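Because discrete structure vocabularies remain unfamiliar, we first show an illustrative case, written as a sequence plus integers encoding its fold.
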Amino acid sequence: MSRNLTALVTGGGTGIGAATARLLARDGFDVVVAGRRRDRLVAVAAELGPAARALVLDVTDVDSVREGLATFDRLDVLVNNAGGALGLSRVEDADPAQWQQMYAVNVLGTMHVTKAALPLLRRSPRATIVDVSSIAGQQPYEGGGGYVAAKHGTSVVSETLRLELNGEHVRVIDIRPGLVHTEEFSTTRLGGDQEAADRVYADVDHPLVADDVAQCIAFAVRLPQHVNIDSLVVKPVAQAAPHKLHRGPIDWKRGDV
């Protein structure tokens, strides 16, 4: 790929976003990592070198998104990765502020950035939008109501946009990961309780890591422009469903898993 192709990755300072930025840079993209925490973004951009830059941007703030996208003279790939979960309360005990924040980031944030990016994307022969959703968005589980609703919203935005752009060359891809062990997701969801976060992954033989999901995103982006992966569900072998998780060793029949 030519070095003048540009990718924007929201939530690019950590986890799946940072891993995706690394792979897209390796594939020849100029990469812009966007998010709220300047220090994390600058660190990732410095690691990637002169083909990367950091952009402080809040996806829930329309003015922040508009000003951030105004700094682009071209955009070829948008990865809407900013998101996250807050809490594990039952619906009857739900904190409305947490639900509002999850909806603001996962759904409205995806809409704000996509809306601002589309005029640029339409000018690119490689125009691709990748939305990072979750298997939670397709299968509810107890204690997950707010996050399930928000990630279902992310996927529905993808599905609706694909219908609305039918006849244009813009690809819309929905990536739906299962259990991914990243440095912040569960800790943030559980209010900073590291012990509780560690229990989420305890005894799971090879949960996904950020690079696994990033590999799926990069694969979808690399495909010829006429090939669109509508949705890609990726889970660790140990996870059959959001509520069905094997804890304990798996006999992999080889030593290089």
In short: The chain has a mean pLDDT of 94. Residues 83 and 106 are 5 Å apart (CA to CA).
